[in-house]
């Protein structure tokens, strides 16, 4: 005899597993443990969906930013990875794999009709946080990846370690207003407010009435760098308004400064003035405060226990939080989100129920904080007291 309660229970489990497939990709071992091994097929399905998303992210990146590299090869290089397409075969590699002629792919797949993905090498060698970098890009595909000509700080915040190669080193070059000093001194040595060298135009404008000056670097019709310097009763404010500079462009400017005949006495120390500053290998390793929702869930689960399989990685997270005074990278926090999400029932059973917001809400906050951290650390606005103007980095000042 048919029992409608059985059908109702089946529908509840079906909806539960559908949610898990969508939101708990990283936690297949826990799901399997909780279901006493019944859901092995589900675990494989989650991994397959994750692999497909990584492939789609790689394809989106090479379509948006890749360049032809001869021999029918299209390539996209980020600070951490290289994505390489030869015909229908696409490979994801660590950047250093270029030294071995791309002999050790992290993942390989083919593209067929209607962009159907065929996995040739699964991403087993990828670290969880590396997978998260690609999965974050995958989430952006529907709304579109940032334009390659957008502000470099926005690209870094949106793409992390998948931002174009040289992103971090270029941002480092703008630390301590190094670029402002170099561009300004090029004009000073040339005894002009505007100089054209090859494709590059460096210009400086002053408005004595409002105490404002601007310095601009253009390539053709495109603004690569734009600074504003404003004199106020309180002091001098230096602000970077536009940054659309590639590593190649910056190297060209450094070359111009070193080799233009009229500028041969330019102080070369400016070019390496931040060389000894502490730097991170990748933009993705920039840490931001632990999201309040994750902090609450993390604290509760540490007190009341995790499932056995879900304890993996907790010691690493604890150590990082202690060393960084409560901060994690965006990818690490995304990974932690899904660890906490599987304990939804325990969190909701707390004396004061803990409801995690959607991953979209959490990521919106984290990426906004990462963008703020990039601007504050690499391209800071400077506020110089009026009585300290001459002593405070006069090489980087636009004379108003």
Provide a descriptive summary of the structure in words:
The protein has 13 helices and 14 strands. It starts with a helix and ends in a 15-residue tail after the last strand. A hairpin with a 2-residue loop joins strand 9 (about 210-220) and strand 10 (about 220-230). The strands form three sheets. It has a six-stranded antiparallel sheet with strand order 1-2-3-4-5-6, with helices on one face. A six-stranded antiparallel sheet has the order 7-8-9-10-11-14, covered by helices on one side. The chain is flat. It is about 40% helix and about 20% strand. Helix 5 (about 150-160) packs across helix 13 (about 360-380). The protein is an alpha+beta fold. The chain has helices at about 5-25, 30-35, 40-65, 130-140, 150-160, 165-175, 180-190, 245-260, 290-305, 315-325, 330-340, 345-350, 360-380; strands at about 65-70, 75, 80-85, 90-95, 105-110, 115-120, 195, 200-205, 210-220, 220-230, 235-245, 285-290, 325-330, 380-385.
């Amino acid at each position: 005899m048919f029992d409608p309660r059985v059908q109702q229970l089946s529908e509840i489990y079906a909806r539960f597993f559908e949610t898990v497939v969508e939101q708990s990709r990283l936690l297949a071992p826990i799901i399997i443990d909780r279901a006493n091994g019944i859901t092995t097929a589900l675990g494989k399905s989650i991994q397959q969906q994750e692999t497909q998303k990584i492939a789609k992210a790689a394809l989106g990146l090479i379509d948006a930013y890749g360049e032809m590299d001869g021999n029918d090869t299209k390539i996209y290089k980020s600070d951490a990875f290289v994505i390489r397409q030869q015909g229908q075969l696409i490979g994801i590699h660590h950047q250093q794999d270029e030294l071995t002629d791309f002999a050790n792919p992290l993942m390989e797949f083919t593209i067929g009709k209607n962009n159907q993905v065929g996995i040739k090498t699964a991403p087993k060698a990828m670290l969880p946080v590396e997978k998260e970098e690609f999965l974050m890009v995958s989430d952006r595909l529907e709304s579109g990846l940032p334009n390659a000509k957008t502000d470099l700080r926005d690209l870094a915040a949106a793409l992390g370690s998948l931002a174009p190669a040289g992103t971090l080193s270029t941002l480092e070059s703008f630390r301590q207003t190094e670029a402002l000093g170099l561009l300004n001194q090029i004009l000073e040595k040339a005894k002009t407010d505007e100089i054209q060298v090859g494709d590059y135009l460096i210009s400086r404008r002053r408005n004595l009435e409002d105490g404002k000056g601007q310095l601009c670097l253009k390539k053709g019709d495109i603004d690569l760098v734009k600074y504003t310097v404003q004199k106020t009763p309180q002091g001098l404010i230096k602000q970077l308004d536009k940054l659309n500079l590639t590593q190649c462009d910056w190297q060209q400017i450094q070359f111009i400064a070193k080799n233009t005949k009229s500028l041969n006495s330019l102080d070369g120390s400016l070019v390496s003035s931040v060389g000894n500053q502490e730097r991170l290998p990748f933009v993705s390793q920039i840490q931001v405060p632990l999201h309040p929702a994750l902090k609450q869930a993390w604290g509760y689960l540490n007190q009341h226990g995790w499932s056995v399989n879900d304890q993996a990685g907790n010691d690493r997270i604890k150590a990082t939080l202690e060393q960084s005074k409560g901060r994690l990278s965006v990818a690490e926090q995304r990974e932690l989100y899904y660890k906490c999400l599987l304990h939804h029932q325990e969190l909701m059973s707390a004396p004061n129920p803990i409801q995690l917001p959607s991953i979209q809400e959490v990521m919106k906050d984290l990426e906004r904080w990462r963008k703020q951290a990039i601007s504050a650390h690499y391209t800071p606005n400077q506020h110089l007291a009026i009585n300290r103007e001459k002593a405070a980095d006069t090489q980087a000042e636009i004379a108003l």
